[in-house]
């Protein structure tokens, strides 16, 4: 699965699109996707892969766009203590850290 | 991530070479760590390098470094290993649902059956098929510790040579279809062929977790569940 995601990222890049990759780097408690899970996003909003059960992908895409714009990688944390997590609904009660980086 | 580093990572994966991508989460710098080389924008201390390679061998991605200490570099190790493989001996009815279930679970699947009318692309669309004898086929496929092997033919002519090879290989799982009575006879034959008690103890038979499976698809699910349990929880499953 990871192969498809990285290959898609490389192929978008080869087409001249801006691309960012998000990776789950740590989890606590019951989180829906294991460490190493990835998604790739391009500048038109196309995406492949996942870093949760669908609850935080929207927020990750927003950060991915910022990373594409300024080239700075970001570390995002989601969890029960995080207001954003409630907003975007990480209902499983777990915590997850996602690293977002542009491909350049 | 640099585009050329992504290219190198994908090339390593395409050639089946184990590689870890190490990211310094503070600076964003990245380095590829191979079994015998490193390539990238920062070096690693010997201790860290050993930890990265150990994680690569165990296929365990995660953070390393002192996570409590704010000043300590936080490194993320992403292990990229060749895919897990499931080698199915016997292009029989149960193999037909087992192959796609294994693919969905993340395994590269090969079906081995020297009987040409069984192993056809029509019955196994998109699956690698080998029509050699099972022992020769398994020798060619270079069994490693990320390989699971299941024999499904019920036919000692095909299953036995496969098991002789499989049970002496580094495969993490070997299972064989057949009732308890079939299995008892098989143990007798394989003992006569020279397999030791320890080698035979590795064999999961009757194959699959006991979930009361009846149909081919249900049996395939029980087999895939057992392979998963052995991979995730160790050999007690």
TrEMBL record, chain A:
Entry superkingdom: Bacteria
Pfam families referenced in this protein's UniProt entry, alphabetically: XdhC_CoxI
Residue span(s) of domain XdhC- CoxI: 12-79
Identification of the protein by name: Xanthine/CO dehydrogenase XdhC/CoxF family maturation factor
Organism field: Azospirillum rugosum
Automatic annotation (TrEMBL), chain B:
Coiled-coil intervals, chain numbering: none
Domain XdhC Rossmann as annotated: residue spans: 86-227
UniProt protein name: Xanthine dehydrogenase accessory factor
Organism: Azospirillum rugosum
